[in-house]
Amino acid sequence: MRSACPHGHGIPPATPAQVEQALEAAAARLAAGGGRLTPPRRRILELLLAAGAPVGAYDLVARFHSSSRVAKPATVYRALHFLETCGLVHRLSTLKAYVACDPDQPAAATTFLLCDCCGACRPIPSADAGPLQAAAAAAGYVIERITFEAQGRCAACRRPRAGPSQVGLSADGAGPVAAP
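The structure corresponding to this sequence follows.
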């Protein structure tokens, strides 16, 4: 992924209790629909929940076992495909990575804010997907999942840095002005 940027973000990782609670909710959701959270699927979801950030498939392969063994890529990709199909995982195309979803929320259109500096990923409620659904239906399509990705910089990465090289625009927007 990205290297850590030099400033804090104040987003604590999920606690083991929160991860376990999310795994139990996911298992219950799957069981209600006739599915199962098999050990490989559970492990992949556990890794994504604990990461709290997007993780690439090959990083999951390497982390799959607590020992020095690695999982077979096919095992990881099958689990990811199943979890994505069930709405428990989102694939972020721009990052070529995956992120866990809230298992208590029904699969719905989701927007992810992706920080180009630190790699932070924050889900936010999406705008009404009704017009997109209607346009797809008119074209003969049935949409199963919608994921929007917006790239930019998070608040922590946008904070001004002290230093003489900062340059901004004047109040009227007409030209550059050195930062005080």
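The beta strands are 89-92, 97-100, 110-115, 121-125, 147-152, 167-169, 176-178.
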